Amino acid sequence: MIQDMPSGEALHQIRLFRRQYLQLLDTHNLTWPSPETLRSSQAQEWIYENLFQTDNVAHFLPPERYRLRILKLLMSKTENSIVDPEEDEISDNLMSTLAELMFSPMPDDATAAQQRNWVTYTPLGPDAPIAGKEPELKLLENRAVISGAGTTGLRTWEAALHLSAYLLSSPELMASVKGKKVIELGAGTGLLSILCASHLGAAHVTATDGDEGVVQALQENAAFNDVKDVMDIGVLWWGRALKGSWMFEKDSSFSCDLVLGADVTYDKAVIPALVSTMRDMFEAWPHVQIIISATIRNADTFAAFEYACTHNEFKMYEVDYPLIPMEQQASLFHSTMVPIKIFSITAPETQRDPYAV
Questions:
Q1: Can you quote a single GO CC term (predicted)?
Q2: Which of 54, 68, 223, 294 counts the highest number of beta carbons within 10 A?
Q3: 271-305 pLDDT tens trace
C-alpha cells in the first residue's frame, strides 16, 4: 500500500483513463497517461488499486478479455516509459495481475458476445470533484450491436450519452430536472432514466420500452442503482392509446412534466406510432416538454420524423449543444463520427422558452 497519492496532472490523467476503461472504450479511443505519469510508482499503484485489484472492485470490473487487452498495452507503454532501470520500477501488483489474466480461462468469441457485462458511467457536471470519489452509474449491458434477444436495447447508444451530457452541462439544466415527473421513451439500458432519478433529483421517473426483455434488464439496472423507489418501469407500445396504458391504470391522475427519448427515430416504420404517442402526451399534458436526441444515421428517416412533427403542428426547436470530439470529452464518452442532434418539442398551443427543460 502506498503512502503518497498521485496529484495534479498525474491524478487528472489516471482518473480520465479510469473513466474510459470502466466504460469499456476501444483501445484506440483511450487517452493513455503520459510516460512521466506511467513511470510514477504512485500512479502505477493507484491504477492497480482502482482498475485491476479484484478484492476491491471485482464485481464491477470489465470482462477479463478486456482487462487483459488493456493491461498488456498498459504494461508495454509503462516499460517504454522507463528512463533509468535502476530507479524506475514496474509495479509487482500489475505484473502479477497480468500473469493471472494471461493464464485465466476465457470464453470464446461467440460466448463473450452474448454476455452482459458491467459498464460504469461517470455523470460529471460542472461541479465535478477534483479529487475523491466520483459519481458513478453502473449498468449491465450487452455490447454486441444486436443481442441474442434480437434487440438493440441492451446497450447504451450515442444519443443517450449525448443527451445525458447535455442535461449535466450546466447547473441550470441540472436544477431544472429536479422535482420533475419524467417519462423516457425507448429507455433501453436506462441510462437517462436512472441519471434523472439518481443524480438529477427528478421527483419520479417512468422508464418505458417496447421490448419485454429490455424492460426486465432495465428493472435489474434500476434496482442495482437503488432508484426503484422513484421509478416505475414497464412496456409501452407506441401508437396505442396512452390513456389505456398501465401508467394510467396504476394512477388515473398520472401526470408528466418532461419526456425524454434517445435514438427513438432510428426506423422510418416506427415514426407514425412514435408521433402518435407524442400527440397523445400533448393531449394529456398540454404543457409537457419532449426532448429527443437523435443520431442522424439516415437523413431521410429523420426528415420523415421532422415532417410528421410539422404535420401535427408541434413546435420543434433544435437545441444548441454541439458535439464535443471524443478526445476532448471528460466523461460519458461517445463517438461523434455520426451527427447527433437534440430537439425540444412542445404542443402546438404551448409558447415558452424552447431551451428550458
A1: cytoplasm
A2: 294
A3: 999 999 999 999 999 999 999 999 999 999 999 99
- Residue 225 is which amino acid? N
Fold observed for domain 137-346: Rossmann fold (3.40.50)
3-state class (DSSP) for residue 345: strand
Q: Could you tell me if residue 128 is left (phi over 0), alpha (psi between -120 and 50 degrees) or otherwise beta?
A: beta
Find out whether 185 and 214 touch, Cβ atoms under 8 Å. Answer: no
Counting beta carbons within 10 angstroms of the beta carbon of residue 299, is it exposed (0 to 12), middle (13 to 18) or buried (19 or more)?
Answer: exposed
Cell representation of residue 341 = 442532434
Question: Among 229, 49, 196, which residue's Cα sits nearest to residue 123?
Answer: 196
- What is the rounded average pLDDT of the residues 115-132? 86
Cα 30 off chain centre by: 17
Which residues partner with 294 through β-bridges? 341
Q: Please give the model's pTM, rounded to 2 decimal places.
A: 0.92
Q: In this predicted structure, what is the pLDDT of residue 1? A: 42
Q: Are 22 and 120 in contact (CB under 8 A)?
A: yes
Name residue 265's amino acid: T
- 2 pLDDT band (50/70/90 cuts)? very low
Coil, helix or strand at residue 148: coil
In 3D space, the residue among 232, 275, 227 whose CA is nearest the CA of residue 255 turns out to be 232
